[in-house]
Design a protein that fits this description.
- This protein has one domain: STAS domain (Transcription Regulator spoIIAA, 2-Layer Sandwich), CATH 3.30.750.
- The longest helix is centred in the middle third of the chain and has 16 residues.
- Helix content is about 40%, strand content about 25%.
- The protein is globular and about 35 Å long.
- It has a 5-stranded mixed β-sheet, with helices on both faces.
- The chain is built from 4 helices and 5 strands; from the N terminus they run ββαβαβαβα.
- Helix 1 runs parallel beside helix 2.
- The chain is of the alpha/beta class and about 110 residues long.
Length: about 110
């Protein structure tokens, strides 16, 4: 699994590549925790190159979602593939996460108004 971080103002876009399963989840979790520790207010997860994620990866996303929500921040998903959408639907997490298929729409969603 590969992770590229693009920092923007008070947030970050994480461009992910590969399956987020097994050992890749620890790398994914560490990358997200690093962003939380720097004080970002929002995170966009670019899932365009993520064909699959396991329950541990979903748990990590939920944890970060809740941490950001505590500080009045936001986490959104971008370009989720069909397999990921299906997992979100089956687990009913589709009602928790906002999923976008357009970068500008995702950026607009996370831009926090004072």
């Amino acid at each position: 699994m590969k992770i590229d971080v693009e920092n923007k103002d008070d947030g970050a876009i994480l461009h992910l590549e590969g399956k987020i399963i097994g050992d890749g989840v620890a790398k994914f979790k560490n990358a997200l925790e690093e962003q939380i520790d720097t004080g970002v207010r929002w995170i966009i997860l670019d899932l365009s190159d993520v064909p699959l994620m396991d329950s541990s990866a979903l748990g990590t996303i939920i944890m970060v979602f809740l941490k950001l929500k505590e500080r009045k921040g936001k986490l959104v998903l971008l370009y989720a593939q069909e397999n990921i959408i299906n997992i979100l639907n089956i687990t009913k997490l589709n009602s928790l996460f906002e999923v976008y298929d357009n970068m500008q729409a995702a950026l607009n969603a996370v831009q926090l108004k004072p």
